Each structure stands twice: as C-alpha cells, then as structure tokens.
Amino acid sequence: MENKTLDPDRILATIHQLENRINDRFPNSGLKKVCHDFYQIATESKVRAAKIAKPDIPLRLMSFLIIGIGLGGLVYSISLADFKMENNTVTNLITLAEAIFNDLMLIGAAIFFLVTIEVRVKRKRAIKRLNELRNIAHVVDMHQLTKDPSRIGGGKNNTVHSPKVEMTLHELQRYLDYCSEMMSLVAKVAAIYSQSMPDDVVVRSVNEIESLTTGLSRKIWQKIVILQELEKSN
Questions:
Q1: Domains in the chain: boundaries
Q2: What are phi and psi of 158, to 5 degrees?
C-alpha cells in the first residue's frame, strides 16, 4: 500500500542536502546560515510534532481526577438534600432544583474545559512552532528581495546606495532556485504539524503558511524566468 503521509526524515534529508548545495556555491552567504537554522528548526519540529501526536497521559489523568472529584461532590451534595414533600414547600423544591441545575451547568462547563484542555495546550504549542516557520519564510524572502536580474553586471542605472549583485547570471539563477526550494520545504515542515494534529486551527495555520510560501515562491520564479530569457538571448 502506498504511503500517503509525509516522512519527516526524508524532509530533513532534503533540507540537509539543500544546505550542502548552497554551501558548495555560496559558502559565505547569509542564505546558507538561514538554511542551517531552518534545518535545526525542522529537526525540532519532527520531535515536537511526534510528541503532539501522542496522548498526554499525565494531563488526561489529572483532568479525569478533577472531573471525578467534581461529580462525586455533586452526587454527595444531592444525596444530602431532602426531597420529601412533607418537609418541603413547592417553593423550596423549586429553589433546590434550580441550585442543582446551576451546579450541573457549572460541572458541565468544567468537564468541557478539562476534556478539551489537552487539545488547546497542544494547539498552542503547534501554533508557536508554526510561527517560527512563517518567520523563516519571510527571512528567505528578504535574502532574495534585492537579487534583481536587472542589476547583473553592476546595472547602468544603479545609484551609490543600490544593492550590488556580484553574481553571474547562472549563479543568481541558482541562488533564486535555492530560495524557491527552501520556501517549498518550509511548507512541507509545516504540514507535519497538521498531519500530527488535524485540528481546525492548526490546519488553517498550515494552509496560511502554504499560501504564503507559494506566493513568495511565485515572485522568485518570475525572476528566474527573466534570467532564463536573458540566458537564451546571450
């Protein structure tokens, strides 16, 4: 049967290979350091996503214990009530019933809070790590931002403060290609979290990261296409 899930180990291997490829061509570049940091975050994400996928036994036991104590207290308090009509007026019985109803509502709200606390704790952890990946995508975009094909060879209309692109046409094309690959891998690492925890909030955040990286990668590929046209014309 074909495996339909992402393999974190293969994703890590691909990121590590990308880091080596960047190091071969641009050993002293900031992009190489970004890829190295990304690899560290991806390694941590593998461990954290696996932990999120597992049940939090201590938290569940604590929740069940508190729920049991609350239900036990409710049953005990009800057992002390006197429901005999000869000892109570209708008004007293209505007041007692209202008090029990209020207790049931509070117990129900408490049970809902405790039952869902594990999901909310895991969701918070996942969102925090997904924000790290979102930041990586923006950092990669900052590195490609000034890599404009029109500035190859110094640029005739450059000013003193214009960013200098000291790369050949082929080198710039490879640099932008590495940026695009890293964007795609950021989305793949993010998808590990939605795979481990298919929660609506987490899935929505992962989809937002995928949309972000796709949009940023599209900008990069526009530059690559221009470079390919320049290469053909030379």
A1: 20-233
A2: -70, 145
